[in-house]
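For this section, I looked closely at the sequence of one protein beside the tokens encoding its backbone, which the following lines show:
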Amino acid sequence: MRVAGISGLGAASGLILASWLLTYHNAEPATSSSPPGHVETPLPASPAPKDPSPPAPGQTNRPQPSTPDPPLPEIPGTGLLRQGDSGHGVYELQVRLLQISHVYDGGAIDGRYDAEVRAAVTLFQKRYGIRGDESGVYGDNTRHALMLRTK
């Protein structure tokens, strides 16, 4: 019985040794000039240093992107437009005003902000309760409301 116990122990030791050799021998090829028969064991990877300070409220410890987001494209015709102005922004305003029923019916599309365009902008502002822009002036609030209602 004692012999069986020893041979069982020998088999278990052999399995452990074989497992160890497979694990550590195949982990990394030996590149050093160690003497033959020397087995190098890999060192455990060092853990990343921890940031001792917790994140501020509302913030996380997520890594920040390496490049900033690209700037948003400019909306054509931004800024204030008023009587006397001309150009592409006024042209776009006239096209949009024509899409609103009974505001600029039959109005010209010539890129000039004249009294007729001013009256149409004023009517649009009153009809839709737009505040924050001077009456008859195509500002940010009026632009936003008109863009929501037109194509």
In short: Helices lie at 2-25, 88-98, 115-127, 140-149. The domain at 88-149 is CATH 1.10.101 (Muramoyl-pentapeptide Carboxypeptidase; domain 1).
